[in-house]
Every structure is written in C-alpha cells, then in structure tokens.
Amino acid sequence: MALNTRSEQTAMSEINVTPLVDVMLVLLIVFIVTAPLLMQAVKVNLPKTAAVSPMKQTRTIQMSIDALGGVFIDQRLIHFDTLEAELKKIAAQDADPNVQLHADESVRYGRVAQVLAMLQRVGITKLAFVTTPSGKVPAPEENRK
C-alpha cells in the first residue's frame, strides 16, 4: 500500500492562462473590426484659394511688478527711470508686441498705473493682466469691509 502524502488542501502552483488568451483574442478581434471604421472620413471637395502669407508672429513680453515696485521685463530688472526707453526699444523691434503684466497683489496701484501709462505712451496696445484663480469670488458686502 502506497502512502499518499499530498493533501487536497495544497495550493495550485499553475496559472490557467486560457481565459486570459480568450479575452485577448476577443479584444484583438474588436480592434481589427473597429480600426477601419475610424479611418473613414467624409469626402469633401474643398475650395481652392490663392496662397496667403502666414500670420506674423508677435513677441509676448512678460512684464512683472514685484511687491516693492520693481519692474522686470522677461525676468530682467529694469530701473524705473529707464523703463520708458526700454519699452520704446521693444516697440521699435516688434510692430505690435503683446505684453503680459504680472503685478503683485500688494504693490501700490499708483505704480501699476505709471507702468500702464508708459505702455500707452510708447504705443503698446496689446496688454493682458495675468492673475491666479482663487476659486472664490468675494461677495459685494465683503468688499465694503
């Protein structure tokens, strides 16, 4: 009589890959069937036009005013007395440059107004104020406090 030392509670050491292969084959068939459908497009005869010159790329200038009132153009500190000359040089290089103004919330509004006036004097008209979204708009009664 032979002794059977293997119990029926032992863990199975082999993985059955048949269901995995079945799922992969089904996915392969789905992709084979749907791929040609994605490539179909509506045939349209587009009108012919004369070639036009590409749009002129304008330079975007990053202008910052820090909490102490220092003015930076593209991370370069500009002395306030020479700011207007620097802006004239920029306006002469580009016909219509874009300026993005980053002003610290604690800077005095007078400094921001001086910079805006300089931008207007040199003829830079494309101006954007860059802000950070806070997620909450204060109620009107909060503004009065």
Question: Which properties best describe this structure?
Answer:
5-stranded mixed β-sheet; single chain; 145 residues; alpha/beta; 5 strands; 4 helices
Write a concise synopsis of the structure shown.
The protein is an alpha/beta fold. The protein has helices spanning 18-39, 83-93, 109-122, 140-143, and strands at residues 60-65, 71-73, 76-78, 98-103, 126-129.
Structure write-up:
The protein is of the alpha/beta class. The chain contains four helices and five strands. The chain has helices spanning 18-39, 83-93, 109-122, 140-143, and strands at residues 60-65, 71-73, 76-78, 98-103, 126-129. The protein has a five-stranded mixed beta sheet with strand order 3-2-1-4-5, with no helix packed on it. The N and C termini lie far apart (97 Å).
